[in-house]
UniProtKB/TrEMBL annotation:
Ranges in coiled-coil conformation: none
Gene3D superfamilies, per database record: Metalloenzyme, LuxS/M16 peptidase-like
Source species of the chain: Caenorhabditis brenneri
Name of the protein described by the UniProt record: CBN-UCR-2.3 protein
Record-linked Pfam families: Peptidase_M16
Gene Ontology, cellular component aspect: mitochondrion
Gene Ontology BP terms: protein folding
Source taxonomy: Eukaryota, Metazoa, Ecdysozoa, Nematoda, Chromadorea
Molecular function terms from GO: metal ion binding
InterPro entries per the UniProt record, alphabetical: Metalloenz_LuxS/M16, MPP/UQCRC_Complex, Pept_M16_N
Length: 379
């Protein structure tokens, strides 16, 4: 995409709103969300975060009734047959061997940040545990957690009445009350894994906004736009190159960095992901901490526009949109348009206060050549 087209596309987004959606709470406790968008493919996949587990199916629009039947059996009433568990055991081991350095430091930043809290638990099973959980244990877990008090049925390009009729009439999800997780307090600290390589992957982070805290989300979004994030536009300028973004100009030559955040029901993580050489790891981390703790926002309006554009780009992605609608329905009643409105209200003093309180206590995770990385209590 030529630079002129990038500018035109971004300008066009300025006047747009995210696709509208309809949400209703059924008498049986299940929440139904419907959204109109373009695009359809055939795909069935599962996903999980530390807050949410779900199954996603994408089909042609006229196949939606059939897809709902499949989704009900797979997601709401899994059988966990012993022979099925035996069949997938080799694939789990294969998946565990495919973890990237980014996957590893993301897992480890949770260990550093939350220590023994519920959010510190890994999404990945130790290889020694693969195959140890049997059909009965998995069925008990499903009967406790896969219930309408915990559930949401999201449809993108699916008629709302079809979703509601199916959810009300088929008993797609068993009756049950919401299961609350233990709160996980951000404590900060360090977690390192040494690996024989020249480079090192690092995350420096503080406690971020929770899913339901829309005002803090708005300030956080503008702050990250200032720090710099990997662009959703192919061929666009990336953080780490010599741009006017708040982080890249401070990093040593050859070091790449991008702001990131993860949001959960009661808290979050926000910070920077770095890829550096072992030799300049110390300088990279110290420069990052300086940029996080003392942001100097020169172009506030431009940061707001970048933050809003990212929301709008994500809203056009079916996977991002469906997951966003699901977490919104489960944990808060706010909408994307509400977040955009809050972003417009953000002032420079809000960002300064956010940085001061958020990065007072740090968590740092690293994978690779970690020898020269400073500890969180040293900076």
């Amino acid at each position: 995409m030529r630079p002129s087209l990038v500018v035109k596309h971004a300008a066009a987004l300025k006047s747009r709103n995210p696709p509208a959606f309809l949400q209703s709470k059924l008498e049986n406790g299940l929440t139904v969300v419907s959204q109109e968008k373009n695009g359809a493919v055939s795909e069935l996949s599962s996903f999980a975060t530390r807050d949410v587990f779900g199954v996603r199916i994408s089909v042609a629009r006229d196949q939606a009734p059939y897809a709902l039947q499949i989704l009900g059996h797979v997601a709401a009433k899994p059988a966990f047959k012993p022979w099925e568990i035996e069949d997938i055991t080799p694939t789990i081991l294969a998946d565990l061997s495919q973890k990237t350095p980014y996957n590893i430091v993301i897992e480890d930043i949770h260990h550093a940040a939350f220590r023994s809290g519920s959010l510190s638990h890994s999404l990945y099973s130790p290889k020694s545990n693969v195959g140890t959980y049997k059909s009965e244990e998995l069925s008990q877990f499903a009967s406790k957690h896969f219930v309408n008090g915990n559930g949401v049925l999201v449809g993108v390009n699916v008629d709302e009445e079809l979703l509601k009729n199916y959810a009300e009439g088929s008993g797609v999800v068993a009756n049950g009350s919401v299961v609350k997780s233990r709160d996980s307090k951000f404590r900060g600290g360090d977690y390192r894994r040494f690996c024989k390589m020249n480079g090192v992957h690092i995350i420096v982070a503080g406690p971020g906004a929770a899913v339901g805290d829309i005002k803090k989300q708005a300030v956080q979004a503008v702050f990250l736009a200032h720090i710099g994030r990997v662009s959703p536009l192919k061929f666009a300028t990336l953080p780490g190159s010599k741009t006017q973004l708040g982080l890249s100009s401070k990093l040593p030559e050859g070091v790449a960095g991008s702001g990131f955040n993860l949001m959960y029901e009661d808290t979050g993580i926000v910070g920077v992901y770095l890829i550096a050489s072992g030799a300049n790891a110390d300088a990279s981390v110290r420069a990052t901490v300086e940029a996080l703790k003392a942001p100097k926002v020169q172009e506030l309006d431009a940061c707001k526009k970048r933050a809003i554009n990212e929301i709008l780009f994500n809203a056009e992605n079916n996977l991002h949109s469906a997951y966003g609608l699901a977490t919104t329905a489960l944990f808060t009643n706010s909408k994307q348009i509400d977040l955009i409105a809050e972003i417009q209200k953000v002032q420079s003093r809000d960002i300064e206060e956010f940085a001061k309180t958020t990065f007072e206590r740090l968590a740092i995770s690293a994978y690779g050549n970690c020898a020269k990385i400073p500890y969180s209590d040293e900076i």
